[in-house]
Amino acid sequence: MFQTPFLNRRQFLASGAALAASTKIGAANTPAPVNPPIKLSAGTGQAALRPAPFGLTPVWQYNGSVPGAEIRIRQGERLRIEAHNNLPEDTTIHWHGIRTPNAMDGVPELTQNAIRAGETFLYEFDVLDAGTFWYHPHHNSSQQVGRGLYGPLIVEEHDPVKVDRDITWMLDDWRLTEEGDIAGGFGSMHDAVHGGRMGNTVTINGKMPDRMAVKSGERIRLRLINAANARIFGLDFGALSPVVIALDGQPVTPHAPDSGVVVIGPAMRVDLIIDLTGKPGEVMPVKDIYYNRMEYTLVDLVHEATPLRAAVPDWPMELPPNPLSEPDLKAATRHEIIFNGGMMGQGMMGGGMMSMMNQMRQGNMWFINGVAATGPVKEPFLTLTQGTTHILNMENRTSWPHPIHFHGHSFRVIARNGQPTRFQEWQDTVMMAPEEKVDIAFVADNPGEWMFHCHILEHQAAGMMGVIRVTTQA
Ligand code: C2O
Ligand code: CU
User: Fold this and answer.
1) Which of 127, 156, 185 is the last residue of a domain?
2) With a threshold of 0.85, does the pTM exceed it?
3) Among 156, 175, 207, where does a domain finish?
4) Fewest CB within a 10 Å sphere: which of 75, 129, 222, 393?
5) Whose CA is nearest to atom 3 of ligand 1?
6) Using a CB cutoff of 8 Å and minimum separation of 24, what contacts does 188-193 make?
7) For 359-390, how does the pLDDT look when each residue is reduced to its tens digit (9 = 90+)?
């Protein structure tokens, strides 16, 4: 179950062009093979989000499915995607977490012109990092992602960790009417000043899950991707003890999640190793316990009658590191980034300053260093020189959590509330709890104009975004 359509190298290899190219082995000085592009077409359609006897839901989707095709490519290969727009409005595709050249980042009016209805755009870049990534539009994102436009992008290691099964769970929640239509109200002010557009129907890979068959003794690599506009998941695997091996695609020291709960904010990814320790026939629920008094069973893991092996394997779990530039903390330049806005206790807005109050009247509800950016942003709030290290001392002066995403780079999360983090983990999207201070460090090694925004898509639309410019050395 939970299979998504699958486009991968094997399909390229089945095509004549790729077969011709594959003769490169041993042939020196021939140009690198160019795979034919994968076609991704954004359009309207229908999806069976709910089980029978419920009907289909009209959605927006890539290649006629939700999620869109799982793209699989090997680290170091060149990805070519021919994006076609069959929607009634503009779109783009952003490769979330992938360190692309700026022109391939998919941000309309910043890195490319929007792809107009009926038009095509070729995305093409070398994939530097292995890991779990995803793709989604970066235009009218609350609505386009909220209606189903997203898909997984898996970059395989040359030497992956050994597992029995490698499974992707793309999590989403939908706000459905009783008829099973996607509720309107995208852009609602209420969603914008609170926690964003929360749904009422949670899906894994576009289906309301029920059960998944597993085998006693089996080892699974589970790639979790949160494609929800606003919902944060806190997955509790009960007696199973999942081990976190990667965050946002980047390897991390294998470790048990804090208090055993895997927390995953919008746009974030977590790779887990799960050893199935249940007895044949045993049912083990996976629960989402993130929100108080809103716990529910996401899916039941059902052990089949025949075990795979008597005991769980003890194969190594550590992933090889990706080629990221190591920040030079001693030489780093520090920048203060303050987040304000949104609804506080007693119905007060958290802007603080008079100018913010004026902006809020125009629908600008969230601020980065006092500025709410709505519509296409072009002017950077930070300009960094290529090759230099920077520490962003971020402070969440709001009553809401925010998953903060930076394009074109991964950063180390070096401290929370002044305390060094245990794993100095690499992320591209970092959760900030209400009132929390989070310090991140990175080398500005990718020149261009890069979005920096909250990935609660309604917060982003109501101002919580900005641009960081990385200039090439003079
Ligand atoms: Cu996942 Cu700016 O995006
Ligand atoms: Cu936010």
Assistant:
1) 156
2) yes
3) 156
4) 393
5) 96
6) 188/458, 189/363, 189/365, 191/230, 191/458, 192/363, 192/365, 192/366, 192/458, 192/459, 192/461, 192/462, 193/341, 193/342, 193/343, 193/349, 193/365, 193/462
7) 666 778 999 999 988 777 789 999 999 999 99
